[in-house]
Amino acid sequence: MKNRLALVFALVVGLSVSAPLFAHHGGATMYDSRTVTLKGTVDTWYWANPHCLLKFNVKGDDGQVVPWIVETQAPNTIYPHGFRKDSFKPGDVVTITLRPTKNGKPNGALLRAVLPDGTELVWER
Amino acid sequence: MLSRWLVVMSLLCAAFTLPVKSSAQQRSPAVKDWPGTDPTRSTADKGKPIPVHDLSGLWSGLWGSRLGGQAGGVQLHPNNGKPENEPPYTPYGLQLYKSHKPLEGKDQVAPAENNDPRTKCEPLGFPHANHYDLGVRIYQDKNNVAMLYQYNNTWRIIWTDGRSLPKLADGGVVVNGDEYREQRYFGYSVGKWIDDYTLEVHTIGTMPEDHVWLDNTGRPISDQTQVTETLKRVDYDTLEWSETIVDPKIYTKPWNTMKLDLALQDPRVDVLTRYCSPIEYQKYNSMFGDSASEK
After folding, report:
1. A93 domain-assigned
2. Does residue A1 lie within any of the structural domains?
3. How far apart are CA B220 and CA B9, in angstroms?
């Protein structure tokens, strides 16, 4: 209930966010329209312009570990949505919903993240 | 039912007045000494008398008309493939456009493939600065109007003291009859009040086409361009900003690129900066952009 309320709150505030979109690049050529949800372990959370980046390792059914990296927006833009410089720590087990790149690489656009304590961070492109 | 409605309304009101923190952190009280931009500002002072010959204030193109972002191209003609939005290119202008690999618009490419000067942290220059997250703080005195653009902490001076517009010459401009001055990213601007609330501005002497673009979608602009703007304070808290481009090297005829309303903000608002860092771009590309762009 608490997390759902936080999500609603974040979405409502998102409609009135004061941070303008920093349009570094468009997404039409890069990203697939489908979404993928993965569970993995955080390696690095890079908090910087032009895009924040999250590296996390996903262990497949075959036991192989695949390093994924997803981007979101600049710190100023995602801060009102609850993201922080310390939102992700190395070793955190997180669930990431993303839009994968069309080239099949383990890259994508971060849409939402569920942190170890159940907190949801949402940035819908 | 009524009490549930009151709770919902209270939450919505709180959403517009309180800063947001992650739900994992405790919510702080409303920030009062560092106010942010206000989407309701455009209606707050409509009834006040319009000051004469005064454009001063913080104006945001991301509220009011909300069209100041212009990521998809100049406001009046976004680069979406529709025939009415195709610029009147000269053959050279079209050739130049096709050589551009932008990150936005109908011909956008992946990050590692782009050749947009702004991703090398080249200054946007003028008039491109009018077509990317437009927001400015205006100060003025009897001699000039100073515009501080929020993107990349840039600024521009419009002289209103009656001086003449320079003449284009040899890759630069000439002033005072025979004094040569270099090209500038924001050119040379002179303005005059054509009525109590409208400033007409002319700009010349901007950078050549290998340094700057017109917008994020790759439309070109040359150093032969002459830009005319009108800034009209239509009411106390609305600034109507129009722009027309004449660039005989790139476009066959004058081209209206912008007519949008900016909303006056609280003068105490601290505007977010958009500073371009070569180090950050390089790191982004090495960590993500190059891989995500591979075919």
Report:
1. yes
2. no
3. 48
Segment 175-204 of chain B within 8 Å of chain A by CB: none
Q: Which residues of B touch A54 (CB under 8 A)?
A: none
The tens digit of pLDDT for each residue in A62-114 reads: 999 999 999 999 888 888 889 999 999 999 999 999 999 999 999 999 999 99
B179-182: strand order across its sheet: B167-169, B172-175, B179-182
The answer to whether residue A60 is domain-embedded is: yes
The answer to whether position A90 is within a domain reads yes
Give the CA distances from residue A72 to residues B27, B70, B71, in Å, rounded to whole numbers and listed in that order. Answer: 23, 20, 17
> With an 8 Å Cβ cutoff, are B292 and A103 in contact?
yes
How far is CA A55 from its chain centroid? 10
β B154-159/B188-195 pair status: parallel
Domain that holds residue A92: 36-122
- Looking at the structure of chain A, the number of domains it has is 1
A107: domain CATH number is 2.40.50.1010
Could you report the per-residue pLDDT of B131-154, keeping only the tens digit for each?
Answer: 998 889 999 999 999 999 988 889
What phi-psi label fits residue B211: left (phi over 0), alpha (psi between -120 and 50 degrees) or beta? alpha
DSSP state of B289: I
Q: Which of A2, A21, A107 sits opposite B71 (nearest CB)?
A: A21
Question: Of A51, A57, A60, whose CA–CA distance to A109 is shortest?
Answer: A51
Helix axes B2-17, A2-15, angle to 10 degrees: 60
Q: Are B233 and B197 in contact (CB under 8 A)?
A: yes
- Predicted TM-score (pTM) of this structure: 0.78
